[in-house]
Amino acid sequence: MQYRQGGLAAIPQLEGRTDEQLLSESKHRAAARAILGARAAERYDAKEARRFYNEAMVGAHPQERPALRQMMNASLALAERRPDDLRDAVQKLGQEPPTSRQLLLLRFMGLVAPAPGAGGLARVRGIAILMAIVVVLIAVGYGLAELLFLPFGGIGLLGGFFVALLIVSLALGVTALLGRRRQKKAKAARATAAPDRPPRRGGR
């Protein structure tokens, strides 16, 4: 995807800035708002993502608006948990689409935590799926607790339940910690690579 020099071409050099710095950016306002929109989409905040992209659209050059709209479509598809639309939008941007595993995870998130605009049935379904997951996790944790305490004569129902909660909490905590570390590494890599990428020039 090619950007017009002086407009969205500034995106690579701005990617390493904080949200506060991007909000105060005036020279490359459209590029800054596009980055903020993408970051809001990564937080699954479709409302904020749409607002930032609309602000970017106002300040963008007419020749850049089709590309910016494609970026907006991809970000909103991510924020609203629409994996098929996300894959199509990313391909239209000329980028490598998400992997099947990533799309499957996004689809699962759409079931468990539907977008704010989803209907009541989708929300009830999400709550039911979440409760089922909790029950399964506790059952697995209880089974592990029974195995751990088997050499000591086993464990009671109440004690096993609390140990199961502890095991599940530890597992979720470790998973969240590893996920945050991967996100930090990815952000650091993008911030390091951004200044080294030359701006892309588009034809007139």
What's the SSE blueprint?
Blueprint: H1 11-14, H2 19-23, H3 29-42, H4 46-59, H5 65-79, H6 83-92, H7 100-112, H8 120-149, H9 157-193
Plain-language structure description:
The structure is a single chain. The chain has helices spanning 11-14, 19-23, 29-42, 46-59, 65-79, 83-92, 100-112, 120-149, 157-193. It is mostly helical and 204 residues long. The protein has 2 domains: 8-108, no CATH class; 119-183. Helix 5 (65-79) runs antiparallel to helix 6 (83-92). The protein is elongated.
Shape: elongated
Q: Strand percentage, roughly?
A: under 5%
Give the radius of gyration.
22 Å
Structural class: mainly alpha
Separation of termini? Answer: 14 Å
What's the short story on this structure?
The protein is mainly α. It has helices spanning 11-14, 19-23, 29-42, 46-59, 65-79, 83-92, 100-112, 120-149, 157-193.
Name the descriptors.
single chain, 204 residues, mainly alpha, 2 domains, 9 helices, disordered N terminus
